[in-house]
Amino acid sequence: MKTIKLNNGVEVPVLGFGTFQITDPEEAEDAVRNAIQAGYRHIDTAQSYGNEGAVGRGIATSGVDRKELFVTTKIWVENTSYKGVMSSFQRSLDRVGLDYMDLLLLHQPYNDTFGAWRALEELQKQGKVRAIGVSNFSVEQAVNLAEFNDVTPQVNQIEINPFQQQTENIQALRDEGISLEAWAPFAEGKHDIFSNPVLTKIGDKYGKSVAQVILRWLVEQDIVVLAKSVKPERMRQNLDIFDFELSDDDKAQIATLNDGESQFFSHADPKMIKWMAGRRLEV
């Protein structure tokens, strides 16, 4: 598996298995176990997903040594403060059943992000977290955090897909030494992405699916990508992207699909900020 080296030297498997919206405990446990057995070594969860415990059970029953795995979780908005991180992170560790986390992210750029970031820095110094970062932060928010603290985020996990390519933001973050992770690489199926004629034609040329073309497009940009499926055959297919390369013409065609807007919602929308502020976790 190809890896991406972060600004602190930690290496991340470029293909990660995402667990967002896999809420049934048994299904989540089976999915994580099957993903690891299929070949995934990077598992991504979050406090707000409500499945950290199931993810931990899937890891524990996978038959793969924990040291071979890269595991990520994220701090939810209500816990985004110094005290909130320090208390909730231990609960996350206990739920997943691990002694340390490979990557810990602030899930959203709201609440006391500076206090929370100081807590992440401390956890990293203590060896409880190997790498720290953010998710859904704009370039300005990420740079602000970096400039007024000791540690520059190692990662920013943001929406990246053919319809929301974020080319300028990706380069701006890289200029700051921040690596990229892509969530929703398939735009959660919006706009019939799996039947898109541009992506289908490229896939047909290489004998690959639209999903494989998208994953390859991201990997060739050195972007860590999180793909989700509960079907073992699809998991294996999503890993099978290292035997072909996209041409410059392929990439130019994919570039025409960019509309430059989120396929979900704006993180600058006050209504969304209020919704996140009011959302309380059950665990």
From TrEMBL:
Gene3D superfamilies documented for this protein: NADP-dependent oxidoreductase domain (3.20.20.100)
Residue ranges of domain NADP-dependent oxidoreductase in the record: 15-258
Keyword annotations: NADP, Oxidoreductase
Database matches in InterPro entries: AKR, Aldo/ket_reductase_CS, NAD(P)_OxRdtase_dom_sf, NADP_OxRdtase_dom
Top-level taxon of the source organism: Bacteria
Xref: PANTHER family: 2,5-DIKETO-D-GLUCONIC ACID REDUCTASE, NADP-DEPENDENT OXIDOREDUCTASE DOMAIN-CONTAINING PROTEIN
Family: Belongs to the aldo/keto reductase family.
Protein name: 2,5-diketo-D-gluconic acid reductase
